[in-house]
């Protein structure tokens, strides 16, 4: 994922310094040609219909944004702590820590460059979740 931003310093400060993502060496010439590659751990891509996005907005008590949006979701050890750590950098809290029906604690903040950042804390293992009703893969889900 590449986040293009007009305020590079603000974005680097938020993701590297506030959220603690380690920076790795990256190529960029001098001047305004800048890049920072940050290790975000293991990544997943979540594809969701507009209906599902609205469902998650409602569960997280987050504002609904009309039209397609991109949102980064970061797994953290403690959602409340992640929100507290991000607050001094000027991020607005869009949704406070909320326990979800899918056994995570989610919160959403406004990150730099217009991106929404969801922090989520897992409360059960993938194996536990997979055995519960309602959890399946798309190819096995009734339509």
Brief summary:
This protein is of the alpha+beta class. The chain has 4 helices and 6 strands, in the order H-E-E-H-E-H-E-E-E-H. The strands form 2 sheets. Strands 3-6-5-4 form a 4-stranded mixed β-sheet, with helices on one face. Strands 1-2 form a two-stranded antiparallel ribbon.
Task: Name some characteristics of this structure.
single chain, alpha+beta, globular, Signal recognition particle alu RNA binding heterodimer, srp9/1, 143 residues
What's the total helix number? 4
* Termini Cα gap: 30 Å
Give the overall silhouette. globular
The CATH architecture name of the domain at 44-140 reads 2-Layer Sandwich
* Low-confidence blocks of residues: none
- Order of the strands making up the biggest sheet: 3-6-5-4
Could you say which structural class the secondary elements and strand pairing correspond to? Answer: alpha+beta
CATH class of the domain at 44-140: Alpha Beta
SSE pattern: HEEHEHEEEH
Question: What is the CATH T-level topology of the domain at 44-140?
Answer: Signal recognition particle alu RNA binding heterodimer, srp9/1
Helix content: 10-25%
Largest sheet: 4 strands, mixed
Q: Give Rg in angstroms.
A: 17 Å
Percent strand: 15-25%
How many β strands by DSSP?
6
Average predicted confidence as pLDDT: 85
């Amino acid at each position: 994922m590449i986040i293009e931003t007009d305020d590079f310093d603000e974005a680097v400060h938020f993701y590297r310094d506030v959220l603690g993502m380690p920076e790795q060496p990256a190529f960029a010439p001098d001047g305004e040609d800048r890049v920072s590659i940050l290790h975000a751990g293991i990544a997943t891509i979540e594809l969701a219909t507009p209906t599902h996005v609205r469902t998650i907005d409602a569960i997280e008590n987050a504002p609904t944004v009309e039209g397609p949006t991109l949102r980064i979701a970061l797994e953290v050890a403690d959602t409340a702590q992640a929100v507290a750590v991000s607050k001094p950098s000027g991020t607005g809290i869009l949704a406070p820590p909320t326990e979800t029906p899918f056994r995570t604690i989610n919160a959403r903040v406004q990150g730099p460059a217009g991106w929404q950042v969801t922090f989520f804390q897992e409360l059960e293992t993938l194996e536990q979740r997979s055995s519960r009703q309602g959890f399946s893969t798309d190819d096995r889900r009734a339509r």
